[in-house]
Amino acid sequence: MNLSSLITIDPEILGGTPVFAGTRVPVESLFKYLEGNYTLDEFLECFPTVTRQMAVEVLERSESALFSAA
């Protein structure tokens, strides 16, 4: 999955906040849920327009970016 099919940044959608492509769900919401001790399944239940594949891909790319910078 390429980045543009995963995340959208558009000034017309939530003022340019990065959202999961095809949704109005901010990517930041995923991290906030996980930080709040919610599970990935709970996040997906609350935001059914986000697929498991999309959420996992964002997490994997974040991990790669974090560790490649070290």
Describe the structure.
The chain has one domain (3-68): Winged helix-like DNA-binding domain superfamily/Winged helix DNA-binding domain (Arc Repressor Mutant, subunit A). Strands 1-2 form a two-stranded antiparallel sheet. The chain has helices at 27-35, 40-46, 52-68; strands spanning 7-8, 19-20. The protein is globular, with a radius of gyration of 12 Å. The chain is mostly helical.
What topology emerges from the helices and strands here?
Blueprint: E1 7-8, E2 19-20, H1 27-35, H2 40-46, H3 52-68
Antiparallel strand pairs: 1-2
Protein traits:
single chain, 70 residues, mainly alpha, Arc Repressor Mutant, subunit A, two-stranded antiparallel ribbon, 3 helices, 6% strand, globular
Brief synopsis:
Helices cover 47% and strands 6% of the residues.
User: CATH H-level name... which superfamily?
Assistant: Winged helix-like DNA-binding domain superfamily/Winged helix DNA-binding domain
Estimated radius of gyration: 12 Å
Count of DSSP strands: 2
Proportion of β residues?
Answer: 5-15%
Q: CATH fold name, please?
A: Arc Repressor Mutant, subunit A
User: Which series of helices and strands comes N to C?
Assistant: EEHHH
Q: How many distinct folded domains?
A: 1
Write out the strand line-up for the largest beta sheet, numbering strands in chain order.
1-2
Largest sheet: 2 strands, antiparallel
Averaged pLDDT:
93
The N- and C-terminal alpha carbons lie at a distance of 25 Å
Low-confidence stretches: none
Number of helix segments? 3
